[in-house]
Amino acid sequence: MFIETRGNDGKKPQKVPFSFAILNPSASFGGLYAPEELPKIDTAFLQNAVQKSYKEIAYDLLKLFNIDIEDAVLQHAVALYDRFDDANDPTPLVQIEDDLFVNELFHGPTRAFKDMALQPFGYILSHLAHKEQQEYLILAATSGDTGPATLDTFANKPNIRVVCLYPDGGTSDVQRLQMTTQDSKNLKIIGVHGNFDDTQHALKTLLASPHFKEALAQKQIKLSAANSVNFGRIIFQIIYHVYSYIALLKQRKIALGEPFYTIIPSGNFGNALGAYYAKKMGLPIEKILVASNINNILTDFITTGIYDLRGRTLLKTNSPAMDILISSNVERVLFDKFGSKRTKELMESLQTDKMYRLTPDELLALQNDFEAIYCDDDFGKEQIRHYAHKGYIMDPHTATCLKAYWHLKHKKLPCVLCATAEWSKFAPTMFNAIKKDTIVYSDQEAIEGISKALNIHVHKSIEALFHKPVIHTSIVEKDAIEAEIFAFLNKDER
After folding, report:
1. Is the pTM of this model over 0.85?
2. pLDDT of residue 492
3. Across residues 383-392, what is the average pLDDT?
4. What's the rounded Cα separation, in Å, for the pair 145 and 108?
5. CA atoms within 13 A on the CB side of 476
6. d(CA 213, CA 24)
7. Distance CA 114, CA 119 (A)
8. Sheet order of strands, 370-374 included
9. For domain 86-111+232-460, which CATH number applies: 3.40.50.1100, 3.50.50.60, 1.10.260.40, 3.40.50.10800?
């Protein structure tokens, strides 16, 4: 069962099943749903998993959660990993140093790690909506990768309409084209004047708005979300952390029971939360190392225990998926460690005072699982260039993680670095780094240049983007989002 991170308001059920939590992700007092308890992974589970495929392991882990989804639906959902580059190994583990392994999570349809969760999650949510014969509006806010992955999984699904918000100018051209060239009639993409925090705030506001929900109800439409505020995303993000350890075992790089480090780019903290839950379930993670860019609010928080928005302005960087100041999934960690009363207190302080402060004991509890560091764009470019010359190409978000590898690894243990996106999604930055220049390249120029220079294959879905017509051209102010959504829904009814 699932409970609320900020406690119960007396109007919602005290505990809800998985299906309710993913269909209705907005909890009391603006909180989130989290599991009441986590299942355990023991040595026998890990040992048996060595002989299994990714989708078999995914199914076994989902069954451990005892969620209220039929076996056949779960089997179909995890079978969607067959759509990835290699059905037998959808998340290849690639060794780039003696003790450093890259968990490549970007081999799905939209070339980003979001596919790992959104492909099966999208199928389950669509199934539930169809089963209920209920129309759902799915909202998504994206810093670049959630949007394309959400749109791909829900395209042409019955009983589902999707509105995706993205910050105008805040994504790469490839990411923007992956969204704006979508031609499925049940999808609407809206550019917003602002940054990702603005779009995420708009999403959370709409999810919690009685007025908005009532207006949808008059159209017989219910509301849900595809961001990692929805636990349906998180449950699938636990799986690939477990699989990375099993891959180390398969490759004989680690002994059963031996701990390892996992290194994760910061973002909205869903990836790190998945690792945290996996650790609590029994996966022998020594420490979760979090890497930030110069929007280093999470590094400051994990280091000092102070989450402080005051005086901060979101800075644009070469790793835009990490250009975030309010990371939603930190709340679930706070809840797991300190309970609902304290979580509500902290989150209300963030809303009213723009900051909160952990006690010394709370900070120690946080640091028992997490360490963090940050780097600037120049460091990232150096890493991209260094590894490209060694024959391995990594995107700017992955490159930030090298700072954590070099500076936070205190024990001689294997490290797994979560690579969240394919290089093609950030090609101009990559090309500048490799060529050591500052020329402004278009995405297409940079992709073609890198492909030729390094003899790298470009995925057909990326190549095709530059020949598709742009269908979605709406760019609005923040206060016009709701009106734009209803214009889409009203048009759909005509």
Report:
1. yes
2. 59
3. 95
4. 12
5. 17
6. 11
7. 8
8. 93-97, 100-104, 415-419, 260-265, 285-292, 370-374
9. 3.40.50.1100
